[in-house]
Structures are given as structure tokens and as C-alpha cells.
Amino acid sequence: MFSYFERLVDAFPSERASPPSTLFGFIWHYARPIWPLLLLYAIGTALVSAIEVSLFGFLGQIVDWLSSTSRETFLATEGWRLGIIGGVVLLALPLLTFASSLISFQAIFGNFPMRFRWSVHNWLLNQSLGFFQDEFAGRISTKLMQTALAVRETVMKSIGVMLYVTVYFTGIVVMIASADWRLVLPFVAWLGFYVLLLRYFIPRLMRVASEQAGARAAMTGRIVDAYSNIGTVKLFAHTEREAVHARHSMEEFLGTVRGQARLINLFFSTLYLLNSVLLFAVGAVGIGLWVNELLSVGAIAVGLGLVLRLNGMSQWIMWEVSELFENIGTIRDGISTFTQPVALLDAPNAKPLAVTQGEVRFEKVGFSYRSAVSHRAAGPVLSDFSLTIRPGEKIGLVGRSGAGKSTLLNLLLRFYDVESGRILIDGQDISEVSQNSLRAQIGVVTQDTSLLHRTIGENILYGRPHASPDELARAIERAEAGEFISALTDNDGRKGLDAEVGERGVKLSGGQRQRIAIARVMLKDAPILLLDEATSALDSEVEAAIAENLYRLMEGKTVIAVAHRLSTIAALDRLVVLDKGRIVEEGTHTELLERGGLYASLWRRQVGGFLDAGEEGETIGEALKDARAAE
């Protein structure tokens, strides 16, 4: 029975439409698919409220029966009515409450927020690289978790509180008015003052809740940032500095909590005084009417009982409304993040990229980095840039830091869109093909190797998830990674390929992470290969060991390599020297040295300052020479 209701809501829908940016539109976007269940929940809430109010009417009738009927004839006269009341109390109300709980707890409680998390997470994965560079990862994930719960609570509390109050108060007025209309006057006056209290406090609670949600997300982001970069924190001995940095955000968050607590305290105290006045007024009016024989004892009992119930209910409403607007503040904070348009979309009817030869061509490309928040340019990085890389050609990009080398790789991967010009692969504009098919045809090894917090095997298989065990073993062997992988053991005793690497691969050395990344790209075996400081984390011995295998990986592929250590790319087919986003020199290593330009200056500086002019070490470049000589 429970599982039936738990399957009524699909927690993992396939649609991924962007939500509206208005508060109601945003909430309704995620609530609309389950509206039939919300309607059933509303009906159940209304029926339970109506029955609970009617029980107070039964209480008044029982008091009147007991005061006017003799003990000898009581059961014979009123027994059938008592039976009805007993059936309502023992059967109807519990069964109705249970049925309503099946809808609210089994069908909605867990599935509704999970549906939100799944939909938004899939939307976030499609966001551009710039989106994540402008936000803390911890802040985004915190907003995702908080907003999911806030949407559910806002919908459920709105339905529950509004219906409960409407049905309950309407029932109170009708029931009291049926005894004597004058007894209704204190309740009407109470309602007027209660509405004024809500109108005064709720907007203020809403503002402070919105500030609190933003402060909470900022606080969490700072804490996660410190934990994610704990190595840097300890390296610079800045644990105290980070504590102070986090304390500032904690103090800001605590300030919003204290402001909220002050408002709630004033609200609670004022409401308690209002309820006390209501109890006194109903008692006084009721006794006055009874003295004049205008009201029965049962009606007074009903009136006082309803006041006591209203006392507790009004405080419950206060807390529910406070939480409701706290959740609305959280949703508003989430809307600012989760309704940003996806910056990089596939073109309508985008086709998969078909790589037949591997020619890459940059045609008059212009680009500048822009903030995903402000959308303002930070200055041009490339301007009217043109470059053609022939099929199977292996080129090296050379230049000072900031010359635009890594930017070219990012544009080729379409992490950003060009502002002018276009980029072609085998004559196909990459802006007109699907992003997934584009990146599936490009293998990348970067300097900052980031591994997923999963097993070694899962990280390597990320290159080709359906590769066979033999293909996986071959990639590991070619990357010279088998020896250290077999010796790995994680904290749970898992070994080798089953050992987990830790967050971002922190349990591995830089060289180990790099070799896993190389194995991953070898397994992918894409026709276009990008190497961005691919061997920078390797020592000379390891670099020499995998240099020949890297050359084998490059065979038959179009290769673009970026390296500050020029000796690693000196033997590539062509070197392209960049300066301020423009090509200033092209040619082979020997040709560029003979020209005595920027490349020659950079080479002399490295040979004189960083390399032994006589012993440059075994490099990828030398491995290329050796392998070609052997062919």
C-alpha cells in the first residue's frame, strides 16, 4: 500500500524546461505536475478541519444533554447520537487522517523535493563553464538543497494553513452564531486584530528571511571554499585567517537570525495578549447571556472550548506563517540562480559532429571574457584571429601567460562562444553541432587534473564508460599507471581500481593524477587531442617513461599542445607563437630559433634559467624525434 502511493509521483522526470522567474510561476512550474495529489491533500485537510470543528458542537450538545436529561433515560434517549459521535471519533476521523497522510507523506513528502533537485541538477549540468566560475560550488549546491525543501514546504503550508484556518474559523462563526449572534462579536474583533498583526509582521519576517537565506548560502560557500582548498590554507599557514574569514559570514548570518527572533518574540507576545483578551471577552459575554437566560451552558462550553482551541491554533498559524515566509525568502534567493538562462545552447536541430579528417580552422575569431553575472567584458583576448591546423598535424602553442593559448582550447571545446568569426572542424561550424558530440570527438589532458570522488576504475572509464576490461588494462599500461594503481588502498580497504581517489583526487600525487588523466584520454581515443601542460605534473623519469606512449596516442590525430616548458613541444610539426591574442611567429623549432624573435627569446630564457643547456632531459619532443627516426 505504501509503495503504491510512493510511486504516484515520478521523482526523476525527463523534461528539463527552464522555470519562470516570478515567485508564483517558479513554484507552480514544479507543483503543476502533481496538482491532482495537491487537490486531494487539500480536500483531506478541509474535511479533517470540518470534522474537528463539529466535535466542539458535539461537546456542547453533550453538556446540554447531561444538564437536562435524567440519568435513567439518558442512554435510551441520546444513545444513538452518542454512537454517531463515537463512530466519527474512532473511525471516520482516524481513517480520513490516515488517507490524507498517505497523500502528503508517501506521495508528496519525499518525491516532490527530489523531483525539484533532479530537474534543477540536470539544468545546472547544462550551464556554461562561466556560470560555475562566477559562483561557489558549495553555494550552488546549498541553494539546490534548501530551495527544494522550501518549495515543498511553501506549497504544503499554503494549502494546509489557508484551508485549515478558513474552514476552522468559518465553522466557529457558524456554530457560535447558531447559539447567539452576540457571542460572535469577540471572535470577529479578534480576527480583525489578528489580520492586522499578520499584515504588520509578515512582510518584515519575509524580508529578514530573504536576507537570512542569502547570508546562509554565503556562509556555507565560504566554509566549503576553505575545506575544498584546505591544502592551500595549510601551505600558507592561514587557518586563523580562514577562521576569521568564515566568522564574518557567520556574524552576518547570526545578525539575520537575531533580527528574525526579535520579530517573532514581539509577534508571539502580542498574539498571546490578543488571545487572552478573546478568552476574557467570550467568557464575559457568555456568562452575561446565560444570566439573562439567553444562552445555554453547552453553548458557553463550546465558546470557551473554541477560544482555547483558537489560542493554540493561532500560535501554530504564527509559526507556520513565519516558516512559510522564511521558505519564500529561500525560494526568492534560489530563483536568482536557477532562472538564469543557459548561456551556451545547442543550435536548433543541431547535428552530431562528424570528424572524417580532423582539420581545425579558426576564422577571424574575436573573443573577450565576460562575467556571467554582470555580462561585462573584461577586455579582448583574441581579435581577428585566424589559424588552420591540417588533418593529423601536431602543433604547439607558445607564448607568455595571458597570450590566449588556453582560451583557444576553451573556444574549440565550446566552453565559451566566439563573439565574432567562427571555428570549423572538417568544415563544420562547431556552434551548429551538438556540444556533446563536439566534446566526444576531442580528448583533453590539462595541467590541473581534476578527478571525480569515485574509484580509480570509474575515473579512467569516464573516457569510454563501455570499454572492455582488456581495453581498460591497455590504457593503464600505456599510461605507465599500473604499478602505482595496484598498490593503492583507500580508507575502507578497497584496493587497486576499486580504491576511491578522494575529493578532486586529493589522495593521489600530482603525477599519479596526471597519469590517470592520460589513461582516461587514451581510452577515449578521440581524433582530436588537446594537451594543456599535459606533463607538467610529471617528474623527468615518469615523463620519459610515457613520452613514447603519448606519441603513439598522437598518431593519426590532430594535436594542439600548450606548454610553458618549450622543450616538451620543440619537435612538433609546427609551433605557433602568440602574443596578446595574435600570431606573431610560426614555424618549426629550428626555424624560429634562426629568426631570433619572441620564441628564441623565450627559449634562451628557459635554457639559461630553468634548463641545463646541455641536458634538457628526455622530453616528448625528443621522443617524437626518436619514434620518427625509427619509422
In short:
The protein is an alpha/beta fold. The chain has three domains: 11-337, ABC transporter transmembrane region fold (Up-down Bundle); 360-441 and 529-542 and 558-631, P-loop containing nucleotide triphosphate hydrolases (Rossmann fold, 3-Layer(aba) Sandwich); 451-525, P-loop containing nucleotide triphosphate hydrolases (Rossmann fold, 3-Layer(aba) Sandwich), CATH 3.40.50. It contains 21 helices and ten strands.
Walk me through the topology.
Layout: H1 2-6, H2 23-31, H3 35-68, H4 71-109, H5 111-125, H6 129-133, H7 137-179, H8 185-228, H9 230-235, H10 239-291, H11 297-338, E1 360-370, E2 377-389, E3 394-399, H12 405-412, E4 420-425, E5 428-429, H13 435-440, E6 442-446, H14 456-461, H15 469-478, H16 482-486, H17 510-524, E7 528-532, H18 540-554, E8 558-562, E9 574-579, E10 582-587, H19 589-595, H20 598-609, H21 620-630
Parallel strand pairs: 3-8, 3-9, 6-7, 7-8
Antiparallel strand pairs: 1-2, 1-4, 4-5, 9-10
Please give a structural write-up.
- With 631 residues, the chain is an alpha/beta fold.
- It has 3 domains: 327 residues, ABC transporter transmembrane region fold (Up-down Bundle), CATH 1.20.1560; 170 residues, Rossmann fold, CATH 3.40.50; 75 residues, P-loop containing nucleotide triphosphate hydrolases (Rossmann fold), CATH 3.40.50.
- The protein contains 21 helices and 10 strands.
- A 6-stranded mixed sheet has the order 6-7-8-3-9-10, with helices on both faces. A 4-stranded antiparallel sheet has the order 2-1-4-5, covered by helices on one side.
- Strand 7, helix 18 and strand 8 form a beta-alpha-beta unit.
- The protein starts with a helix and ends with a helix.
- About 2% of the residues have low confidence.
